[in-house]
Amino acid sequence: QVQLVESGGGLVQAGGSLRLSCAASGRTFSNYVIGWFRQAPGKERVFVAAISQSGGSTRYSASVEGRFTISRDNAKNTVYLQMISLKPEDTAVYYCGTSASLYFAAAQNFGSWGQGTQVTVSS
């Protein structure tokens, strides 16, 4: 079982950047695809990005492609989400979760969710 802890959120102006971290406990971290999702108030949790077990393959939602970059360091049991050119519509709680496949994009196919980290982008 992997336990995940997100960090790195905060308040930033539009056009700014943040780097989120998803730190994992457990020796099987490198066995899992890791995905980032976000959830705005009153809305569903939606897919943002995912990275394969080795880090060699990634996927992004259309709304963040070209602005966000997902990466992982298996030696540190950590996945990162570098976010640039942030927009007010990026405001949400960001969560990371584990999955068996890079091609899942539904939250129901991910597990071991962390507690989330708040990202607020002001206009």
User: What is the CA–CA distance across the termini?
Assistant: 40 Å
SSE topology string: EEEEEEEEEE
Q: What sort of overall outline do the alpha carbons produce when their principal axes are compared?
A: globular
Distinct helical segment count: 0
Residue ranges: pLDDT <50 for 5 or more in a row? none
| Mean of pLDDT | 96
Mind telling me the C-alpha Rg?
13 Å
Please count the beta strands (DSSP E, at least 2 residues each).
10
* Multimer state: single chain
Summarize the amount of helix as a percent range: under 10%
Q: Structural class of the helices, strands and pairings?
A: mainly beta
Output the strand order for the largest sheet: 2-10-9-4-5-6
Largest pleated sheet: 6 strands, mixed
Sheet-strand content, in percent, reads over 45%
Give an account of the 3D structure.
The chain is mainly beta. The protein is 0% helix and 48% strand. The protein contains no helices and 10 strands. The strands form 2 sheets. It has a 6-stranded mixed sheet, with no helix packed on it. It is globular, with a radius of gyration of 13 Å. The mean pLDDT is 96.
